[in-house]
Amino acid sequence: MMQSSTIPFVRSLFPEQTATMKARPTTGGTKIRTQANELVEKLMCCQPHYVRCIKPNANQAPGEWNSSNVIEQVKYLGLVANIEIRKAGFVYRREFAKFLSR
């Protein structure tokens, strides 16, 4: 406000703050917050979908099946809870044509 005064003396008493103040260095927390906000903005603009993959074995060899490994993946991916929610009636299915067009 004082920088826009018509009196030159008053303007000289209140220099613009951007010219005299140095910007604070960017911290890790600031970067994380900025990136998280950008990610949320991007997700709100689109319709993301998720494909969960399960590896049948650690060797990635065909024909091998490691049951304990598969059960562990199912547990940690939250697939059992997801199935229970769907059974309870909270299911959302997109038309296949719309899914394919994405």
TrEMBL record:
Gene3D superfamilies: 1.20.58.530, Kinesin motor domain, Myosin VI head, motor domain, U50 subdomain. One of its GO terms (molecular function) is ATP binding. Keywords: Actin-binding, ATP-binding, Motor protein, Myosin, Nucleotide-binding. GO terms for biological process: actin filament organization; endocytosis. It comes from the Eukaryota. Residues 36-58 are annotated as: Actin-binding. One of its GO terms (cellular component) is microvillus. Residues 1-102 form the Myosin motor domain. InterPro entries: Kinesin_motor_dom_sf, Myosin_head_motor_dom-like, P-loop_NTPase. PROSITE patterns: MYOSIN_MOTOR. Belongs to the TRAFAC class myosin-kinesin ATPase superfamily. Myosin family. This is Myosin motor domain-containing protein. It comes from Rotaria magnacalcarata.
